[in-house]
Design brief:
36% helix, 5 strands
Length: 194
């Protein structure tokens, strides 16, 4: 992968098609097959290059681009749940300029003229999950899936001790979204037990 832009639209389209195919295959391997084929850093680098090409050659930025999608195809064997509000993905920031660009976009969107305050935390790479409670009771748990529809993993979520089955004082309808992950100690204990 080159750091320079292609000389013309034909070369750009050829590189875009290669990157899009690699990213689509990586999404299937990671999200549907649970068998990642590349590191997060490599994936992020390919996606960053795709965005660079699309910025320089706007005709390449279509609704079918991997940059316009989140998640991947749904796995077989699970029921499906359609998210009432799309379950999108977070963006990565690799340089100070990325954070500055994000801050400026948010300020413009919100119509703010002053600075914004931020908090940051290390990235936790787990399974994105949506928990829906109605009347304080867990109704379902769904993965992000393709952002619009996720896999119904309610039975699995009910086995996780840290996920409450009921809440007191919650609104009538409450949806909680976050990452489900296993600590290193729990992972080692699971491996030992198996």
């Amino acid at each position: 992968m080159s750091d320079t832009l292609p000389k013309g639209p034909d070369d750009a389209r050829t590189e875009w098609q290669d990157l899009a195919a690699r990213l689509t295959a990586a999404d299937v391997a990671y999200h549907r097959d649970d068998a990642p084929e590349m590191t997060d850093a490599e994936y992020d680098g390919l996606k960053r290059r795709l965005r660079e090409l699309q910025a320089a050659f706007p005709d390449l930025a279509t609704a079918e681009s991997p940059t316009a999608k989140v998640g991947g195809p749904l796995a077989e064997g699970f029921g499906k749940i359609r998210h009432e509000v799309a379950m999108l993905s977070l963006e990565n920031a690799f340089e100070d300029g990325d954070v500055q660009d994000f801050s400026e976009r948010v300020s413009r969107f919100l119509g703010l003229s002053g600075g914004l305050s931020f908090t940051a935390e290390p990235k936790i790479d787990g399974l994105s999950l949506s928990l829906r409670y109605e009347g304080g009771q867990l109704v379902y748990a769904a993965t992000r899936g393709d952002g619009e529809t996720g896999e119904n993993v309610t039975a699995n979520a009910r086995q996780i001790a840290d996920i409450p089955q009921s809440l007191s004082g919650a609104p009538e309808v409450l949806e909680v979204r976050g990452e489900v992950y296993m600590s290193h100690a729990d992972f080692l204990a699971l491996n030992e037990a198996q």
